[in-house]
Amino acid sequence: MRPLAIIGPTGAGKSQLALDIVERLSDDGPGAEIVNADAMQLYRGMDIGTAKLPVTERRGIPHHQLDVLSVTETATVARYQQAAAADIEAIAARGAVPVVVGGSMLYVQSLLDDWSFPATDPEVRARWEQRLAEVGVGRLHAELARRDPDAAAVILPTDGRRTVRALEVVELTGQPFAASAPRIGTPRWGTAIVGLDCDTTILDERLARRTDTMFDQGLVDEVRGLLREGLRDGVTASRALGYAQVLAALDASGETAPDADQLRAAREQTFVGTRRYVRRQRSWFRRDHRVRWLDVGAGGAPDRARLIEETLRAWRQVP
Length: 319
Description:
The protein has twelve helices and six strands. The chain has helices at residues 14-28, 77-93, 105-112, 122-135, 137-147, 149-154, 160-173, 200-216, 219-228, 243-252, 260-286, 301-316; strands spanning 4-7, 32-36, 63-64, 97-101, 192-197, 292-295.
């Protein structure tokens, strides 16, 4: 069964379209299952801040690569690639359609282009990790920007782990980090790739509502609970958008209740950080000529029906 990938920037409506598509495919016969491609949704307990669909809203549809890591574990592209590929092949073997959904750039491309990862060197890695501890992630990221501007453009300035890895690869290979990335060719398994996007003004409004909803639904309490699960010990989980900002607010308040100004700042920083991340997603995904881009419009019922039909048309089209 030919897989379908639904990608695009945060807030574009990928999860809801995926549910609609799976229901239609199930009505038409083959059935389908969803494989998550959002790095932070791999974590158990990180629900509100990642906009993870609650079980009650998944319409009984099987979802894979959700809640597979504790917040103390490190999410890696290599681990995800291996696990998600196994899920896709198992779903297809059952005679169902794998539907990959998410916007984590490296995760999507590693999966669809079968990325072979560069070797690592413990001594080189340790040296860059020591440099990170000495100067901080901001200065180390600036160093990456001087050595490899393209890598710095897609790695968050707050992501110390990926900054270290990129610098390690540049030193070991003598080439830009992107040179080790997979070449864009025929997608693995003949996957049809659909991208969702919309006018920037509309998307910014969606992101603002999304951020407000997260804080209103209890993101601060969720972070407090995850602190008891070891969130601070996690290399990747603690730096996720929303979670990092709430952690900073809790630190400023002595881990009591942040005051109104602290919460307002955390909310604004989360929105700004998410909007900045969306720019990176657009830049990354738009360079992929295989993506069939669909405008989500205002998101009403006519747009929803149109998106379902156009997505299914793209999936049925012979590559």
